[in-house]
Amino acid sequence: MDQLSLADAARIVLTYISPLIAGGALAKLGEEATDASLELLGKAWDALGRRFQGDRKAEAALTLFEDDPASEAMQQKVADQIVARFQADPTAANELLALTRAIAEASPAARSVVLSDSAQAGVINQGHIGRNLFTGETHSNNFAEVINIYTGGAAAPRADYEGALRRYLDDLYACHATLDLRGIDEQRPVEIQLTDLYISLTLREPALATLRGPGAVRRFMGAPGEPAATDAPAILEAEQAEARERTVTWPEALRDHPRIAVVGKPGSGKTTLLHYTAVRLAEILARDENQRLGDLGLDRPLVPILLPLRDLGAYLRECGPRELSGNGPRLLLEGLANYYQGRSLDLPANFFGRLCDEGKAILLLDGLDEVSRTDDREIVSGIVREFARRFRHCRYVVTARVAAYTGASEVGADFTICTVDDLDEEQQQRFIANWSACVHRLVYPKSTAETVKRLARTFNDGLWHAVSENPGVRRLAPNPLLLTVIAIVFFNRQDLPENRAQLYEECVTVLLRGGRGKVDTAGKERAALLMGLEARRELLAAVAYQMHMGGEQHKLIDRDDLEQRISAYLGPRSASEQAAADLARAFLKELPVHIGLLDEVEQHRFGFSHLSFQEFLAARYIAEQREAVWDELLDRYRESWWREVIVLCAGHLSQERSWLFLQRLISRGDTPAERAEALDLATSALLELERFKGQGPIRGQIRDEALRILELRPVESAPAAARVRCGAVLARVGDPRPGVCDLPPPMVPITGGSFIIGTSADEIAEFTEQYLAEYRAAVDTLDAEQEQQIRDFLQGWINSVPVTVAPFELARYPVTNAQFKLFIDADGYNPTSTWWDGVGAAWLREPLPRREQDGWIHRLEKDAPEFWDDPDVGIARPNHPVVGVSWYEATAFCAWLTQHLNDGYVYRLPSEAEWEYAARGTLGRLYPWGDVTPDGERANYRRNAGYTTAVGCFPAGATPEGLLDLAGNVWEWTRSEYRSYPYDPNDGREAGGDPARKTFTIRGGSWNGRPILLRAAGRFHNYPDRRLLYVGVRLARHLKV
User: Fold this and answer.
1) 262 strand-pairing partners
2) Which of 797, 844, 866 has the alpha carbon at shortest distance from 1032?
3) Which of 57-61, 353-357, 454-458, 927-931 is the least confident region?
4) Spatial separation of the C-alpha atoms in residues 678 and 663, rounded to whole Å
């Protein structure tokens, strides 16, 4: 208490005042609440009010806190203000500290909150940390602090809680500090240290554009101190920040967010992440290694409470309706007690509850997706949600597969969604190195350290070469689980198959041959199952097919049902029904401890440890049936549940049969939308097959059919979504449209004429209110100053003076990635080339800012557009519009094209007047297509297609002359300097000289833009050196003079 800080005082006061405001102070203080404590809390609240008075920022934080006292974010804002305001006045600070001490004396439950989170580590007898976390007595300060939580206000003997905590942490450590290495010869050791193998995963926080909350407008308008209001580049950068996820490490995520939903693909490392966190925290608690808290992004030691949510779901199913009604937090605590009761730890009844009451726990809730039924997942999510509200000072991490984390299954907006990134090449190499070092130490225990290192290095080089040279394996390697199995396959056979289906076959074989693990020690004494490898594989394939037929809602199968199905399968292959039944029971007993593919994931309920194995084995079963069975599978092509099975089935078939299989697939579908789905799936399978079976005869058929749907007329004959899907197919198999992936680009003649550029004052007045309404709907607050900034910006669109445009030609589409690649391949980024003028060459030679200085920098060199390697918008999508090009790059491309084609034309950027004239015509259309309000059939905007789309997928949005994608998809550079109206083409705005001192107009809106910005008169401006995710280029041309 003597070392109480202002931060401690803030936490204590707010902990007890927040329920007081909400009307629940007595419930929070419990039996320890007294009139004295409530009176002291009132005095503390008055002290805050006096100190905050007159400080606008502090008063605003206090007001927001009063509106939502349960919000951790609001509490933190007030806590920050308490420290800032009271530090400046020692007298007031001492008064608050004295009140806080008095509150702690009046309410003993507060004492544990006062314990300093930064206490210096004491000397402890650590002993040997191996499978057991503790040896001998424990003298850890961290451990003692946790024990004080239990004993501070309780009469129970200290030893009861100390022993319970030791047993709990020791069990946690023993279960999760090592990994079971399956697939290596069972005579060799099978357990490796988790911390030796672990590599840090990369996570992505959600795009800000998907979030609602205070500050969105301020982000939109620019950071404090930066140009705002009429600064369109700042607006675009803010939009870019909102549209792209932020990449963070796991410690950064834990540091920044008290509640996290970790969402990822199967096998992406979500469970290992929780186990690693739990093990590290257990070590920190036992060893007083507070200096290692930073490795986890935490500022204080917390007790890890690990719970597989499938076990909570199983517990809830055993509860009756009466038990399930009401208190969600109680159910989770009971589920925890039930789970750990099965581990014979003899924990006190209030063991977990007291930790959560005092905010000294981090709940690691694993596998929401493993709660098999959607209804059950929604119930579990609701319980977690209520629990987090009740115990708001704890930290929470929930993991789930992407597909399962949707709708009512989401645990709430308070949980920041962090998606697990695939392993990049550096992470893959580190993982392989760690894995190799661990395995070679275990496999060659008698060799010298130098010999083991040499063997491990040789293995690393060989495996990495196999991974990097095999496209099929490269696709699997970013997944930690699959990379582990790949490493085992390579270790056992010293090479890797190219066919993904064959690779899965090898992986399944590895797991079938794997040594017994630590799941069931008694199982190690059990006689081996008398069933051959091939028989087991066929049996598993039949089981996988039957389970997959049950659909996504039946991922698990009851033990009795599974036993009956296995017995039925084995019946015709056994001497008698009894023999089949006996073999089925023996097979089930062996499953959890020997095979590692089909495990008991809940009590008496089995499921495949990884959905990919179920999908492959189901595909294998179908592939080995007669061809008539194929139709049953192919008829399900529109069901995402069966998509991977179809792809893997094609891979498992012989070459001739695989082409026949895909031929039947592309014949599916009665409507353009249905046929587009079949083509998309067939393309995924085709591209895999061609890597090891050669180019198939159906590539041309897929391309022709996709092109036919994309260009169907009238425009109503195919929805835009089907055209977008076909555009994506053509991106992968080759887009044959002239001028899309090659040159010259198709040009559309525009007859010259006069028109009024911009928008009338009346129109601006009308849609300004609509524009503001959209922002109010997206944010919580929009103050008067911000609103005026937006109004001022839109005033820059007003004009009533006509302008005359000479005849010219404009490209039908924006420049595509494939077309820009021709520029790159022609040494386009050589600053000595004639297509770079002096200013452009100077920009090209300037080094890029370091990434930490400029958040938009993704490339290390100026040798390609900024997002060239992005799988969503870069060269991987050759028929999509190029993005991430500066004004300098756009003008250099035009100059290069003029020289490259040498066809009598000058290729250039359109002027702002030319662009708008082409978009609206002499009749003054509101949008390129007319006056109809934008929708998803006419344009790609507001992320309705995710990111950019192949050019030309929205014919309903074309101009009468046939120009496509003028609205949406990407903003387009013009050669015009951004100036006020009226527009005078002779005043120098179109000259382009001294560009570094100017901003240039961009037109058209983008895939992430708002519908108002799709108007033909809409305009923004951008700095010439900015390379943004939304900005591309469209060409104009005129005859050389």
Assistant:
1) 399, 418
2) 866
3) 57-61
4) 10
Q: Using CA atoms, how far apart are residues 528 and 773, in angstroms rounded to an integer?
A: 70
**Partner residues linked to 303 by β-bridges:** 361
Asked if residues 48 and 6 have their Cβ atoms less than 8 Å apart, the reply is: no
- Assigned token pair, 236: 């675009």
3-state secondary structure of 514: coil
For 117, other C-beta atoms within 10 Å of its C-beta total: 18
- Residue 730 and residue 879 in contact, taking contact as beta carbons nearer than 8 Å: yes
Any idea how long the chain is?
Answer: 1041
CA distances from 601 to 319, 514, 610 (A): 19, 19, 11
Which has more confidence, 1013 or 473? 1013
Residue 528 has what pLDDT? 45
Tokens representing 593 are: 């401890």
**Residue 160 neighbours by CB under 8 Å, 6+ apart:** 348
Reported as a single tens digit per residue, the pLDDT across 100-126 is 877 766 654 433 333 333 222 222 222
Give, rounded to a whole angstrom, the gap between the first and last alpha carbons of the chain.
86
The strand order across the sheet containing 259-264 reads 246-249, 202-205, 416-420, 259-264, 395-401, 361-366, 303-308
Q: Which amino acid would we find at residue 150?
A: Y
How confident is residue 143, by pLDDT bands cut at 50, 70 and 90? low
Torsion of CA 888, 890, 895, 899, to 10 degrees: 140
Q: How many CB atoms lie within 10 A of CB 866?
A: 24
417: left (phi over 0), alpha (psi -120 to 50) or beta: beta
User: What pLDDT score does 26 carry?
Assistant: 33
With 0-12 CB in 10 A as exposed, 13-18 as middle and 19+ as buried, what is 462? middle
205/841: higher pLDDT: 841
Question: By the 8 A CB rule, do 911 and 976 touch?
Answer: yes
Amino acid (one-letter) located at 682: A
Judged on CB neighbours under 10 Å (0-12, 13-18, 19+), 75 is: buried
CA 814/CA 72 separation, integer angstroms:
47
Q: Which two tokens stand for residue 42?
A: 């009132």
Q: Are 167 and 345 in contact (CB under 8 A)?
A: yes
* CA 819 – CA 950 distance, rounded (Å): 13
Stretch 773-797: mean pLDDT, rounded? 81
**Residue 286 pLDDT:** 87
- Residues of the chain with pLDDT > 70: what percent? 81
- The pLDDT value recorded for residue 120 is 25
Closest CA to 705 of 750, 672, 754: 672
What does the pLDDT look like over 524-569, one tens digit per residue?
333 445 677 888 889 999 999 999 998 877 788 998 999 999 999 9
pTM of the model: 0.66
b/e code 790-799 from CB counts within 10 Å (16+ = b):
bbebbebbbb
Q: What is the rounded distance in angstroms from the CA atom of residue 509 to the CA atom of residue 530?
A: 17
| Angstrom distance (rounded) from CA 250 to CA 214 | 25
| Distance in angstroms (rounded) separating the CA atoms of residues 240 and 225 | 19
1023 φ/ψ angles, rounded to the nearest 5 degrees: -70, 145
Alpha-carbon distance of 281 to 269, in angstroms, equals 18
Measured distance CA(236)–CA(642) in Å, rounded: 40
CA 999 → CA 584, 777, 930, distances in Å? Answer: 75, 30, 29
Looking at the DSSP assignment, which residues form a beta bridge with residue 305? 363
β-pairing, 605-608 vs 598-602, is antiparallel
> Tens of pLDDT along 683-742?
999 988 887 777 778 999 999 999 999 999 999 999 999 999 999 999 999 999 999 999
Distance of CA 882 to the CA centre of its chain: 24
Closest by CA position to 799, among listed 755, 746, 859: 755
DSSP 3-state of 857? coil
